[in-house]
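Practice problem 4.
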């Protein structure tokens, strides 16, 4: 993993928010795109940059691609810590945890 790629990935507020959303649950590209006021191709580019930096991984499940954090990545560990104390990241993590609970309860 190149540190330049990691710093490039973390330089974008959108990508930092994506990491916050993925901190508690896996999400599809569509679920991620719903949270931003940008085009789906732009979301796709952000996801590609994060994946190329080794911060997230993708897995095809049926017709959807699910994205998740690479949890054993030191940068993600540090980012998770910062998000716990960050007033911007905390609500995003809570929303993500709520989504995960809803899925386990049978909701979509």
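Answer key:
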């Amino acid at each position: 993993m190149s540190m330049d790629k990691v710093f490039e990935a973390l330089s974008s507020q959108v990508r930092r928010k994506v990491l916050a959303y993925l901190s508690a649950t896996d999400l599809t590209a569509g679920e991620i795109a719903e949270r931003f006021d940008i085009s789906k191709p732009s979301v796709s580019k952000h996801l590609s940059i994060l994946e190329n930096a080794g911060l997230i991984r993708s897995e095809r499940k049926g017709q959807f691609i699910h994205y998740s954090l690479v949890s054993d990545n030191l940068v993600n560990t540090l980012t998770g810590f910062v998000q716990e104390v960050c007033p911007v990241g905390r609500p995003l993590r809570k929303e993500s945890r709520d989504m995960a609970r809803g899925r386990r309860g049978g909701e979509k």
